[in-house]
Structure formats: structure tokens, C-alpha cells
Design a protein that fits this description.
alpha/beta; five-stranded parallel β-sheet; binds 5'-O-[(S)-butoxy(hydroxy)phosphoryl]adenosine
Amino acid sequence: MSNIESVLVENRVFPPSEQAVKSARISGMEAYNALCDEANKDFEGFWARLARDNLVWTKPFTKTLDESKAPFYEWFEDGELNASANCLDKHIGTPTENKTAIVFEADDGAVTRVSYKELLGRVSQFANALKAQGIKKGDRVIIYVPMSIEGVVAMQACARIGATHSVVFGGFSAKALNERIIDAGAVAVITANYQMRGGKEMPLKAIVDEGIAMGGCDTLKTVLVFMRTPTTCGMTAGRDKTFTEVLQGQPSECRPEAVGAEHPLFILYTSGSTGKPKGVQHSTGGYLLWAKLTMDWTFDIKPSDVFWCTADIGWITGHTYVAYGPLAAGATQVIFEGIPTYPSAGRFWQMIEKHKVTVFYTAPTAIRSLIKAAEGDEKIHPARYDLTSLRILGTVGEPINPEAWMWYHKHVGGERCPIVDTWWQTETGGHMITPLPGATPTVPGSCTLPLPGIMAAIVDDLGKDLPHGDGGILVIKRPWPSMIRTIWGDPERYKASYYPPELGGKLYLAGDAAARSADRGYFRIGGRIDDVLNVSGHRLGTMEIESALVSKTDLVAEAAVVGRPDDLTGEAVCAFVVLKRSRPTGDEAKQIANELRNWVAKEIGPIAKPKDIRFGDNLPKTRSGKIMRRLLRSIAKGEAITQDTSTLENPAILEQLAEKL
Ligand code: WT7
């Protein structure tokens, strides 16, 4: 699409349908504005009301927000509750108890259903099994499992006994797992023997064994193994037990452990600017409030809905909109084990048809790759499936380009479903800036307006407010209930990363560039302002990949990693490498590049593999020895160098680095 056309598309406005306005909880912009006014007039009163209305408290809170230890904010601090009771027990004795909580579709298409009542029984039994293994309130438990009912059961069971879970995405490496076990001081790992993806059986337990064997996991006592497939796996006597073994004889009733509202429900590791991933710590009360409330507000979830969020439980989206939100809202949800392209790239559309999905939530990268597939093969075009059950569509994880938005609107939503483009982060716990399906007129490529009570703003790099129309950095001016509480074990890093003194120390720095439109004040997200890349909606630190590359000490002398725009994955990883030996060319360069890619996959995970590797005798540096990353970004994009290179120590290097393998 030409630039002119895309500008035209961007300026189109799609008001919510009359039907959507009529049926929605937040109906029309007046209702949205009324909630915003309520929050503006009485910030604490607003949140206190919502927390009372939306959660079951075993001990009611008397304090709403404590700012005395800012930027370590506390919400509902003297209240007590249990997250699992708020997702399961509260439905017992209501019409929801016999409703399907989860429709699980396996990689091979086999479908399993569990009702709320059955799920409560399974979670309780698993919670008893955890207790029998000596796991107790406050302990950390790593969960490294495929998408499964068992995964959700494991998370909910930890919450039930007050253990803090830390889910590690099944695509992360043994090394990444080892670092997380150590950082969290985990007492147990919950895993599976294998995972099934695209018809292939892939090991998980073997990776756990490898991770533990790397050493340092001194706190770890137990490994619990879900036998997903009949294939056996190595078991270490005394340490490793199958689910069947530990569940045997355990009753399916377990009293939920009441915890303080600030008790850490989970830690989720995510990439930051520096090498080491950050353990983002979330609370119980504030987090759960937002999970429940955003299900109601953003997805306008109704008892008759079938909700499907395609995210893996290893990411924050899979925490808030698979493991907690849908259950807290009493919804029926689809959980999918496999991949969108198996057995064909029509799988998502086929599943929407089969399960009569009404609210569908996925990533722009998935949409873009399915557009490409549908263009190449008419048989898997969404037009070939009955998608009339859909009523709301959502996107998450990265900016959606207006072309993909239009395709999603037209071919998946049948021009009738509002699209909620939800901006948020691992640290925010849930949606922050998003349209409301029965209120907000949408504009392709814009996440529109903040949710009520979320004080989002655009400022310059000194923290000064910028007028609409000006690009700047995105900040949140007041705390909100589901915000990150700290970085596990590193409060100083939390302060420096999110409340930097340069901005005055009182603004939450999201790390994204953004602008508000001059007319409506709608937000448009530009991309990260730090050294974080967004590849297919997955967050990767450039420094993390650089450290992985230079840890191959026999080969690599120096490495610099930057992102470049990619039509399919949003951004792609581009690595500039100086070897300890002479600069390779031709086939040899290709072979070494592959070796390095596999090395990165082993160090971090396949998602971090550089798409592009360039070799140079050196890297472009200033005379003071600083790598000129801006120059590298231009080279990665294939742009002509227009920047001033007069301060460059070694200008000749640029030609070498521009050479593709
Ligand atoms: C970063 C956070 C949100 C949960 C999944 C990713 C980018 C996220 C959008 C959106 C533009 C978006 C931002 C953000 N991002 N949603 N709707 N439009 N950009 O969570 O891994 O913590 O990544 O994803 O850059 O900072 P995450």
C-alpha cells in the first residue's frame, strides 16, 4: 500500500455499532467520560468502590492507596483475599458452577471440556498435592509447561496455597530456566515430559534437567512432571515425581489460603535495557481487580460469550487473559495447545467456527502471517469459514499497522466487530490504553484512550507535558492497582527503570514513544525508546542478545545488536559481530552465522535468534570508543548513511557491515 493510501486509512473513524452501544456495560462515550470524571474527582474512592464491587475479600480493606513509600505503592494493603477463590469458589452455588470454564483443543484437534465445578476440584486436589510436597505460602514455584488445562490448574493451585508462581515460556532455553530458578529462589519446578506443537513432540523435562545441571539451583527440592505424551523421560529419584504420583489419594477440597492484598501472586521475567531479565512482581488484590475489571470493560464479557485469547500462559497476556481474567469473570474460554499454522494456516478460523468464539484476542504478528498465508492459498482464507459468532476482536503486544487492522476488520470481523487495540505491558498487569467496544470510535493503528483511572500522558524528556500532536514519551502519572510492585530482589532497579529521577521520580516511565492526535487526543504508540526490541510481540533486550553472543568466547570478540523494521514480525534482530579470527566471507560466513544463531537459541531461546548477522573487522565507534548504534540501525535498515560520520574512528567499516550474507 502506498503512503498516501495508508494515511487515508489511518484517518478513517469507525464508530461502534448501535447494537454494540446498546448492549455494552460502558455504553457510549458519556458513560466512559462519567467514569473518568469519577476517577478524577475522587481517585481513591473510585478504586475502592471497584475493588469492593469486583472482588471477594475475606477481610475487607480499610486503606485504598498508600503512597508513603513511593514509588513502592501499596493498594488495599490491609485487605485479605485469595486469587483462586475469586476465580473459582465464588462461582459455586451460582448458575456458573456447571458452565464450561475451559474448552481445551489439543494440537491434534482433540477437545476436552471442564466446568467451573470440575476445575475447582482439580485445582484443590493439585493444591493439596503441592502442600504434601512441603510447598507452602510464600514459596516460589517455576512453571514450565505447554498450553494446557494442567498449566492453568498449576497456576491456580499455587495461588490457592499462597505460593508465588513464575511461569517460564516453553520456548526458553535451559540456561534461561536456570537463571530464573536461581533468581526466584524456587523450591519446585512444575513441567511436562514433552510438548506437542505442530504434530511434533518436543522435550521439556530434558531441558529442565539440563537447566538444573548447570548448577546453582540450591533452593530447588522438587520437580513435578505432567506426562503429556506416553513417551518416557529421565526421572531423578527423590526429586522428580509425576502428577499421577503426587495427586494420588489427595482430596479434591482445599481451603483457599487468605493472603494480604500485596502478597506476590506471581513473578514474571521480562527483558529490560540491561543484560539480566527483570522479575516483574505482581500483587494479589490490585492485579486481580484489574484482570476481572478489564474483562468486563474491554471485552464486555457476557455469560453467553466464548472468549479466546491465543497468548501462551508464559507471557503476561496468558496470565491476565487466560489464567485469571476469564475465570474471575466467569467466562467460557478456549485454550489452544498448538500453533496457528498446523495442520494449516486456517486453524484459527476453523477453531472460531467450531467453538463459536465470540471474543477473539490475538497479536498483530499472527494476523499479518495469516494474511500472507490466506493470500497464497484461497482455501484458508477466513471467508471460507463461518465466523459470524464473533462480536469483538482484540489485538495486543505491538502496534498494528492500519492495513492489517483493515483486513482483520473486514475479513475476520465481517465489518461488524469493534477492534480493541490494547496497549499495555508486563509491568502494567492489564490493559491501560484501549478502545471500549460499546463506546470508543476506533481509528486503525491507534489504541485510542486510557481506561478510566489510568492517567496516561505524553511528556518530553524532562517530564514536561506536551500538547496533542507532539511526539514524546509515554508516562502514567498516578499509580494504578495492577502495577508492578518491584523487581524481584532488586528494588533499586525498579526505581531506576520505572521512576527515573530525570523525569522527577513521580512519573511511571513505560519505555514507549507515543503521540496523541491533535483532534481526538488518541494515543498512537511509536515503539520502544530503550534497548528493547519487539519481535512478533515478544520482548527482547538487545543487551541480552549481545551478552549471549559474546559468551561464545572461543569465537566472538565483540557484538552489537539492533532492531530493524520487518513486515511480518514487526521488528527483526540484527547482529553485528566481530570475530576473534579474521572476518569470514561467502559460505564460511553463512556457516558461522548459523552457528551463532544456534548458540543464541541455546542461551536464550529460539525467539531471540538474530535474523540478520553481519561480520566486520570492527564496529563503528566514536573516538571515545562508544558504539554508534544509530548508525548500525541505519545499516540494518539498508539506508544510505546520511548521519555525520566525522567522529567515527574507522569509517571504512561501514561498507563491510552493509554487506549481507
Ligand atoms: C511492550 C510491552 C501487552 C502484553 C504483551 C506484551 C508493546 C504492547 C501494544 C499495542 C503498540 C504495544 C509496547 C510495550 N505493545 N501492546 N497495542 N500497540 N505497542 O507485553 O512483553 O511486556 O511488551 O509491547 O512497546 O511497551 P510486553
